[in-house]
Design a protein that fits this description.
This is Metallophosphoesterase. The protein contains nine helices and 16 strands. The structure holds manganese (II) ion.
Length: 379
């Protein structure tokens, strides 16, 4: 008989993460609210898609920062799922330590926490066997010692794993497991967590790492969400997955070349256009100003931050511009640079429209080599 189950697979939500890097407490608090909004969205998705289960593959919350009221709130969210089971494993940020909320809190009946002491749960109604490999400590360099799984072919078998899948050339001391070891256990699906960037490259082997449903920093670019997975098992096994975006905000790091800017008005206009394109009222931006500045123009990062504060949720500016050269004054010098500028200017004056920009670039490369001793060809 063919069996079919569907579930939402998420991981690495990191509820109550401090977000201290944002620098302002009101922004950090807002980001913690974002995590809760994203979590609510995940709960709504389970109901909306009428999924059979919710799987949380580790790092649901940050043990070091999480408050009791957040834990109570999480449990209330789980209650919204009624009888639908929630399967959780502890990750390296919410490990199964002595004072873990997974031990001390009285969770709703539909919540099943798989630990090294009790690593499995069998759902009789839907004939699904769950097995978890999580964390007993904040740092764990080998897999926890626990009873082996009981994978039976007549059931649907799902493994939750928080850690690093060891592939060639990768070393990571967080629960490292050989890919062959894990797939050799014979599960129909592996709900992985730990890395915050989504990865469905191993879905052919039944493995997905969904990443963080809400990005936590500038190293977590790209899209963030959860997976809706459907498994159908009869004579053969069929797997289907759909990525669903859940994030409230995105992180962007942008370079803006302001070499053509001649006034503060031009500069603010150029930046405004970029902020608009990246929806700065919502997203979190880091802007790197580049280019060779016009002679008498200077960048005031503090001014820019004040000027754009109200147009942005959070924006940082860094000034990586280079000073311009006073070509007029240089061409009069009796130095190597002076002769070079004079010759190049003559050539530029006589060049056609196509050749001109190339020669101008060559002029600046030459000056850079003379004055700074090195070239930044990426310009
Ligand atoms: Mn994590």
């Amino acid at each position: 008989m063919e069996k079919r189950v569907s579930f939402i697979h998420c991981a690495d939500i990191h509820l109550d993460a401090p977000f201290s890097v944002l620098g302002k407490e009101n922004l950090s608090a807002e980001r913690r609210k974002d995590l809760k909004r994203t979590f609510e969205k995940i709960i709504e998705l389970v109901l909306e898609k009428n999924a059979d289960f919710l799987l949380v593959a580790g790092d649901l919350y940050e043990h070091r920062y999480v408050t009791r009221s957040t834990i109570t709130w999480v449990n209330e969210q789980f209650k919204k799922l009624g009888r639908k089971p929630v399967i959780i494993i502890p990750g390296n940020h919410d490990p199964y330590v002595r004072n873990s909320w997974y031990r001390s809190y009285r969770w709703n009946d539909n919540v099943h926490i798989l630990t090294s002491e009790n690593p499995d749960y069998f759902d009789e109604n839907l004939n699904v066997y769950f097995y978890g490999i999580g964390f007993d400590a904040f740092h764990q360099e080998t897999l926890p010692v626990q009873k082996p799984p009981e994978v039976l072919p007549e059931r649907i078998n799902i493994c939750l794993f928080h850690g690093t899948l060891k592939m060639q050339f990768t070393e990571d001391p967080y629960n490292p497991a050989e890919l062959d070891y894990l797939t050799g256990l014979g599960f129909d699906y592996y709900a992985v967590g730990h890395f915050h960037t989504k990865d469905e490259g191993l879905f052919g082997k039944g493995i997905i790492n969904p990443g963080s449903p809400e990005p936590l920093g500038f190293d977590e670019k790209g899209e963030h969400g959860v997976y809706l997975v459907e498994l159908t098992k009869g004579d053969t096994l069929k797997r289907q997955c759909t990525f669903i975006r859940t994030q409230q905000r995105a992180y962007y790091e942008l370079d803006i070349d302001i070499g053509d800017v001649e006034s503060t008005d031009m500069l603010t206009e150029k930046i405004s256009n970029t902020l608009c394109r990246y929806d700065s009222r919502k997203n979190i931006l880091r802007i790197n100003l580049t280019g060779r500045l016009n002679q008498d123009f200077h960048v005031d990062v503090g001014f820019l931050e004040r000027r754009f504060e109200t147009d942005c949720f959070s924006v940082w500016f860094t000034d990586n511009t280079k000073p311009g050269y006073d070509l007029e004054a240089l061409s009069k010098e009796k130095t190597l640079a002076g002769v070079f500028v004079k010759k190049m200017k003559e050539r530029i004056d006589n060049a056609d429209e196509k050749e001109k920009p190339v020669l101008e670039k060559a002029l600046y490369f030459g000056l850079e080599a003379l004055f700074e001793g090195s070239l930044n060809i990426s310009e």
